[in-house]
Amino acid sequence: MRLSYTQDELLSEHDYHRKQIIDGQRLHGGFDEDGKYLPPRSKIRPEAITNWSAALRERGGDLLDANSSLLSGPRVPNFEQQCLLIGNGLSRVFWNGLTITGKIEGRGRMLATMPMPDLQALVVEDISEMAIGHLNTGLMIAHGLDEGGIPEEGIGGHDVMWFIARDLAFGKDAYPDAEPPERISRGEEGQRNMPQLAMPYELFLSFLMNLLLIEFRAEIGFASSQKIFRTTRLFPGRESASLEAAEIIERIRADELIHVESLRLYLGELRACTLRTEAGGEIPGHEIIDPFWQNLVAWSTGDQPRLVAQQTHASIVNMIDEHPDAARVKRGFDDLRDDGYELEAA
């Protein structure tokens, strides 16, 4: 079983029968002779992930046991609320969401260039035939290019794909630009969570775990957006365009599956390894990873979604207030809220 790969191999592309081009814009990935979508840089990468995963299991470990169901719970707006808004001419809420998603995806391109610590100096075992031994030789570059594309070559990544999907359904410049809201941070940010490790390693491990949760949260949002686009009655006169937008999101989700499995693999490998402490000792990786992951999940399923829901609800209500029948729309919107989400007392 092969476990060592070069950067060129991990970044290699399929020989596409047809490239992905929409409205004249070259996007990453392409299609085989049967029209099946092939994610970018996936000629070798999935094989490598499969092999590293098998090797990890042979050593008695496994991928981090986590999936997007961790973040299930009330959403604002949910599918029914979004349909109500669009049906009442308040499409800007959905348009803003698509715009913000594209911009956040674009920020992910920094993964292609961000400096990473030498994990071999952290891990006691030889990592040359593990995925974590290839982070600096293709894996993180591939992830970043998937998100933000290769603008200098005119190739769009997920950011551009979201903007194209949005414009197919609504037309270009349908509404003013939108910016991502301020991130809601944990109150304990800035505190040491893995004091046994040198700070650069704590920051990097924290980054990987936060990134995995971001991917899970994105998957839930992507599925919801796709469902909206497939509800063609919401886009009269643009039904076929909205279905094409849904297909674009399906391709993004196919790309993201590689990211999720990769991150679960990296963290699974680190859990199964022995880590060097800053004081010169050694500690099992799971004793570092598990407590931080559990606390992060608790925040991401507890206070954070409630705070985000309140922030989003307030923003949407401000838009509803501009509607000529605002009271009716707001009442209908609040009546459709998910179970488990209670409005703050006025």
Calculate Rg over CA atoms. Answer: 22 Å
Distance between the termini: 62 Å
Helix content: 40-55%
Rounded mean pLDDT score: 94
> Which structural class fits the helix and strand makeup?
mainly alpha
| Strand content range | 5-15%
- Widest sheet: strand ordering: 1-2-3
Give the number of helices.
11
- The run of helices and strands is HEEEHHHHHHHEEHHH
The tally of beta strands, per DSSP, is: 5
Q: Could you describe the largest sheet, including whether it forms a barrel?
A: 3 strands, antiparallel
**Large-scale geometry:** globular
Uncertain regions spanning at least 5 consecutive residues = none
Write the layout of secondary structure elements.
Blueprint: H1 7-10, E1 18-22, E2 25-31, E3 37-38, H2 45-58, H3 79-87, H4 92-107, H5 135-148, H6 158-170, H7 199-229, H8 239-272, E4 274-276, E5 282-284, H9 285-301, H10 303-320, H11 326-335
Antiparallel strand pairs: 1-2, 2-3, 4-5
